[in-house]
Amino acid sequence: MQWKGVFPALTTKFTAADTLDIPLFEKNLQAQLDAGVSGIILGGTLGEASVLTVEEKETLVKFAVERVEGRVPVVLNIAEGATREAVKQAALAKQWGAKGLMLLPPMRYKSDHRETVTYFKTVAASTDLPIMLYNNPVDYKIEITLAMFDELTAVDNICAVKESTRDVTNVTRMLNRFGERFRILCGVDTLTFEELAAGAHGLVAGLVCAFPAETVALYRLVKAGRYEEALAIYRWFMPLLELDIHPKLVQYIKLAESQVGLGSEAVRAPRLTIVGQEREEVLSMIQQQLAVRPALPDYKAIAALV
């Protein structure tokens, strides 16, 4: 398991009858593989994990594992309120064929330093799967501090962090303090260029769901030092990337997916599809950017460099 490259946090596709839309999920998954992603993450915020049943998670993981055929690892996100439920999810992920876990701090309870570290250690001790911690204090109210990471260095299978503090400097802080002990993946689309240039090893991306080729191209160009080419894509991409930092990122990104033929707008309640002026404004921006979508360089040719 190499925590580097582009890991899309895939959306969960639903039918009009509110069941899993597996054919549409497969279409998007294939587009990600064709673009050259390094792994896929299921059941994250974009995946609407909080409204998925265990049976639906099982279906998605097993289907993805079968379709990727070992080309890239399938990672399952764990976002649970109880430690024992997180441990149970970790065990199920292994049974279903996942090759790694993304792990949030406890949900719905603001754990302190000791509780947060104990939670992570307990889940990690229950599995041999490699784990990427998700550090997002903006949305989930618990920061995984450098002091916490100090204690977690002793846990061999805690290998990486999805860096979503929205503080670009944290990449440098982590590298200065821990070297290569933890792989760092940018978790905020609007900071992709900056964090990759600062030394992040990859990214967990959102708009990649609609624009897989542009996202992988951006990553590879930055890592190859082709900054001018990368910046041209990044500047075009930015209005779209900003959809990732909105409270309705699921609805907005699904709207973008629908416009490029890689998804639909269907979400699961209590979320509702956006309507009226809100939808028109987001749709107008998406269409404006599609009208000037850039031609990409042959980014796949530089794969060996990254």
Automatic annotation (TrEMBL):
SMART domains assigned to the protein according to its UniProt record, in alphabetical order: DHDPS
Binding site for pyruvate: 204
InterPro entries, A to Z: Aldolase_TIM, DapA-like
Source superkingdom: Bacteria
Keyword Membrane applies: no
Catalytic center residues: 134, 162
Pfam family, one: DHDPS
Keywords from the UniProt entry: Lyase
A single MF term (Gene Ontology): 4-hydroxy-tetrahydrodipicolinate synthase activity
Protein family (similarity comment): Belongs to the DapA family.
Protein name (Swiss-Prot/TrEMBL): Dihydrodipicolinate synthase family protein
